[in-house]
Amino acid sequence: MSMTLYHSQHTRSIRVLWLLEEMQLPYNLETLSLELGNTGGKKYAKINPLQKVPALEIDGKLLLESTAILAYLTSVMSGGDFALDANDPNYGLYLQWLHGGESAFGMYLSLYFGHSVLLPENQRSKLMADWSLLNLKNNFDQLGSDLGSNEFITGEKFTTADISVGYIAYGMSLLGKLDEIAPQNVINWWQRLAERPALKKALSF
Ligand SMILES: N[C@@H](CCC(=O)N[C@@H](CS)C(=O)NCC(=O)O)C(=O)O
8-18 pLDDT, tens per residue? Predict the structure, then answer.
């Protein structure tokens, strides 16, 4: 099987890169510079007309959506590692945060990033920045209550739920806001994840 990951630094493609490194799978990496609306230029538009990252080409077929790619890789390639089984008592929680990393958190991370850093100052909305930060905080509180004193989101096993939401913690720590809005057990969980060699390697590209 041949795999090519289209990736840009600091973006959601880190989720896929991180899992590929955890799984120690061989892959080719195409690093693109992020340019809103035109990432990868015309050449990449021919591969992925949405011009977003990540995209994973597997034996000539293109797969989009970072959390779907995580689910694909664990169900097709990992033999049960990095995922929970449907008969695990925490399977629901696992799915909730695997998807929630994008569906609960993702939009607010993008809005907060846009309205605090990315947009020209005269186009930023304080209301939008404050509202997205509040939603990020509420989601981290919910995560904290599910995490409790567990090592990982679903207990003792590291899964793609940790990768999915771990990317959001990475983004907020990069923006210098994680310590301000996340409860202490979430901060501690993120610090444990940040020590994983696979994540360190993914962040080095
Ligand atoms: N829901 C998608 C979001 C993909 C996405 O929006 N990626 C951003 C980087 S984090 C991107 O490529 N943006 C470029 C653009 O919007 O022009 C996923 O999780 O893969």
Answer: 999 999 999 99
37 lines ligand 1 (CB under 6 A): yes
62 in the same domain as 131: no
């990982």: which residue's tokens? 152
Q: What percent of the chain has pLDDT over 90?
A: 98
- Give the C-alpha distances (Å, rounded to integers) separating 92 from 27, 84, 185: 30, 9, 21
Ligand 1 centroid from CA 196, angstroms: 24
Ligand 1 neighbourhood includes 80 CB (under 6 angstroms):
no
Please indicate whether residue 36, judged by its CB atom, sits closer than 6 Å to ligand 1. Answer: yes
Q: Are residues 73 and 95 in the same domain?
A: no
Domain boundary among 26, 54, 82: 82
Residue 53 tokens read as: 């990252």
Element (H, E) at 193: helix 184-194
Reported as a single tens digit per residue, the pLDDT across 36-94 is 999 999 999 999 999 999 999 999 999 999 999 999 999 999 888 999 999 999 999 99
Minimal-distance CA residue to ligand 1 atom 9:
11
